[in-house]
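Case study B.
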Amino acid sequence: MRRGLFITIEGPDGSGKSTQIQEITEFFRKRGEPVIVTREPGGTPISEKIREIILDRNHREMDPVTETLLYAASRAQHVAEVIRPALEDGSHVVCDRFIDSSIAYQGYGRGLGDCVSIINAYAVRDCVPDLTFLMKLDPGIGKSRIKKEEQDRIEMENAEFHERVFQGYEELELQFPDRIVGIDAGREVEAIREEILQRIERLLQR
Ligand code: TYD
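Model:
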């Protein structure tokens, strides 16, 4: 059986990931191909519990290393329980955030550097996305779209943190040009959708 495609969507908070995830899912459904949509941190009962611990606004004292390990633990369970079995079963998987989020937020945002990639390589093993869309939007604009009282512990971080995260994403885009596709997320939803679906079609033809 042919393995499904593993597609991830990345970018700052409020950059319009959810809308495009719906469009991608719809695209596969119209083709009559099985697809599952999932998210990080989360995607399994255990991972959703870990998500609650990570994002709890009261956990102000959480150490950056603890945070990194919790994201990686949540991811390891998600890969083992959901992502890998689905791909092996021939289903496509569309995931809202994945390993690049940890490298951008914990590696660059928190300043932990290379250890984040090493920890996560162990968590995901060979389960790496085939294609990653990076929604590029000024992090300040993204943040202004989220109400203050709805911001989680990470979204509450200051502007400098979110700037470093964005720089991290840009570095990743340069480092993995074959996998990561930068998308100008400041445009109309329809234009973004067209560009994303064209890239997926190209990959399917290969
Ligand atoms: P997300 O689910 O995208 O937030 P929301 O549902 O509120 O839009 O992600 C939650 C937060 O976790 C987000 O600010 C990004 C952050 N994050 C990391 O810092 N590292 C990671 O590895 C992941 C997956 C997310």
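The mean pLDDT is 96. The remaining cases will be described in the next quarterly update.
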